[in-house]
Structure formats: C-alpha cells, structure tokens
Amino acid sequence: MTTYARPLLRLLEALEKLPGVGPRSAERMAFYILRASREEARQLSQAVADVKDHLRFCEICFNLSEAERCQICQDASRDPSILCIVEEPKDVLAIEKTGAHRGLYHVLLGAIAPLDGIGPERLKIDELLHRLSDGTIQEIIIATDADKDGEMTAAHLSKLLRPLGLKIT
Prior knowledge:
7 helices, alpha/beta, 169 residues, 14% strand
C-alpha cells in the first residue's frame, strides 16, 4: 500500500480539521493546491495569515474588525437605540446584505449548546448586559439561528432581558 508523502499528509490533516471537510473534500482541495501555481498557493497562505494577524473582534459588539471598533459601531448614521443580537459575525453580514437593519449589533460568538459543553457563560452575554446598562438601547431584536441551539439561546436571552423593560422582538 502506497501512502502520500509527508507534506501532503500534513496538508490533508490540516484541511480535514476545517468544519464540513471530510477526507474526500480535503483530498480535492489538496490536489487543487498542488496543481495551482506557486503564486496562487502563496496568496492562499498569505490570506490565511492575514486573517489571523489583522482581524480582531470589535471591542463593543464583537463583530470582526481590523480596528478596535468595527465599521458599524463607528457609523454615526446607525440608530443606537436598536440592537440586533446574532450568534456569529457571518450573521451580521447576512443581515447587512438585506439593508433592512439600520441599528447596531451584538455578536454572541456562539450559541448555547449543552451537548457541546457550551453554556451561557461562554457567550458574550455579560458584555451585552453591560452595553444595556447605559439606557441608550430601547429595542432588542434577537436574531439567533432557527435551530435548537439558537432557540435555546433566544429563550435564555428573552428571560434575562424581559425584566429590563426593553422592547424585545
């Protein structure tokens, strides 16, 4: 039985760690990279390094940002009285593409998932409560995923936020 050379095996192992990538997908990607020019491979490698080196979470909302504050939190034209709570930065992008929300966001960086050992303490809920303490926000839109973890997270947030007297959607 012949096996792949060590560098290719390391690439396959690394690719298989990506979510949703199994052995066959990893193999397709690895062979694509092998066929690509050295420059294309370097561009891919540099793009991965740049994401790790230059992106951070916004100090206010936890969206992805190149600066301490994301573009949305810096935008004075946004309505600071409306806050949309989402699970991940990709959810902000999806909502922004619709153009329907002109308020601010709060990214939880996950959802409550007891089977995966993720409880409310692992999410940015304490930071959310701190944001609400100054009284600027009047309406909360809970936009978690429609799966069981998202529903559990929404129920937990509703229970926490209801006593604050805010409009919750």
